[in-house]
């Protein structure tokens, strides 16, 4: 249940979620002029800190009314699991840090658990479930439920397109579960969605490839840089939430 801090008729000073009548209505941020104008013209509005407001139920509702973009065909297919949990402090998403391996084009990146589709996988969903079980010991088929999908993406590595399509599936964890990482994963951690939604963690990340420097949109999460494919998927999740609240999508869809 959301904790409503106060009733206002003017925009708050800090990024927050704005709720009206107990439901998600708008997203406010100091950088979102449209939201500020909407708040100033309406009222009364109840506001509370971002981290106290966003719940998995909001995400479930947003995804239920959204058809993901499907990309076909592709030389290879892969799938990832966007796993959510809903502690009292607000919805959190699970991320992994990939081990540094010469054979892995995403070596050392912050990512979602997942990987390439194998011939024995019935479909992309089966790939996401299998890879998550293998990488972090979490059996999504038994310990979570599927609540939606995000847009499928064409893969990139080192800023270049790869002949692979990635399908992200969103799961809600039934209850806290112990995690056991494989040698493909150096770390696994939970991070709150509130700061991602407010925009306070957005940044630009510079990557040098073959002597050329390119700027990429990114998130700073627990002293880690989230960029590339994972940043694009998180942005898609944020867009789904803000679109369901009648706001413009977040900026930053780099590769």
Describe the structure.
- Strands 5, 6, 7, 8, 9, 10, 11 and 12 form an eight-stranded mixed beta sheet that branches. The chain has a four-stranded antiparallel beta sheet with strand order 1-4-2-3. Strands 13-14-15 form a three-stranded antiparallel beta sheet.
- The two termini are 36 Å apart.
- Helix content is 23%, strand content 38%.
- Residues 1-9, 11-52 and 246-252 have low confidence and may be disordered.
- α3 (56-64) packs across α7 (229-244).
- Among the domains are: 6-53, no CATH class; 63-187, Nucleoside Triphosphate Pyrophosphohydrolase.
- It contains seven helices and 15 strands.
- The chain has helices at 33-40, 50-53, 56-64, 124-136, 140-143, 194-198, 229-244; strands spanning 6-8, 16-20, 23-28, 45-49, 76-85, 92-98, 110-111, 114-116, 144-149, 153-157, 160-173, 185-192, 202-209, 212-221, 224-227.
- The protein has 255 residues and is α+β, with helices and mostly antiparallel strands.
CATH-level-4 superfamily name of one domain: Nucleoside Triphosphate Pyrophosphohydrolase
Count of β-strands: 15
Estimate the strand proportion: 35-45%
Name of the CATH architecture of one domain: Alpha-Beta Complex
Briefly, what CATH class of one domain?
A: Alpha Beta
Calculate the terminal CA-CA distance, rounded to whole Å.
Answer: 36 Å
Question: In angstroms, what is the radius of gyration?
Answer: 18 Å
**Helix content percent band:** 10-25%
Structural class: alpha+beta
- Average pLDDT: 77
**Biggest sheet descriptor:** 8 strands, mixed
Which regions have little confidence, pLDDT < 50, spanning 5+ residues?
A: 1-9, 11-52, 246-252
- What is the CATH topology descriptor of one domain? Nucleoside Triphosphate Pyrophosphohydrolase
């Amino acid at each position: 249940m959301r904790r409503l801090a106060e009733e206002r008729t003017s925009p708050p000073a800090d990024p927050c979620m704005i709720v009206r009548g107990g439901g998600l209505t708008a997203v406010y941020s100091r950088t979102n002029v449209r939201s500020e104008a909407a708040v100033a013209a309406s009222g009364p509005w109840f506001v509370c800190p971002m981290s106290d407001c966003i719940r998995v139920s909001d995400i479930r509702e947003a995804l239920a009314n959204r058809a993901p973009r499907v990309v076909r065909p592709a030389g290879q297919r892969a799938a990832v699991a966007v796993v959510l949990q809903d502690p009292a402090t607000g919805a959190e998403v699970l991320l992994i840090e990939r081990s540094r391996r010469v054979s892995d084009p995403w070596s050392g990146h912050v990512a979602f658990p997942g990987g390439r589709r194998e011939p024995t996988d019935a479909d992309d969903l089966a790939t996401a479930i299998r890879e998550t079980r293998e990488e972090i010991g979490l059996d999504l088929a038994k310990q979570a439920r599927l609540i939606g999908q995000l847009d499928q993406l064409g893969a990139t590595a080192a800023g270049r397109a790869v002949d692979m399509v990635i399908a992200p599936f969103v799961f809600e964890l039934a209850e806290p579960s112990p995690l056991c990482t494989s040698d493909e994963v150096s770390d696994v951690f939970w991070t709150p969605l509130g700061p991602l939604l407010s925009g306070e963690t957005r940044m630009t990340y510079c990557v040098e490839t073959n002597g050329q420097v390119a700027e990429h949109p990114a998130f700073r999460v627990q002293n880690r840089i989230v960029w590339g494919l994972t940043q694009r998927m998180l942005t898609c999740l944020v867009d789904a939430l803000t679109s369901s609240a009648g706001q413009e999508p977040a900026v930053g869809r780099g590769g």
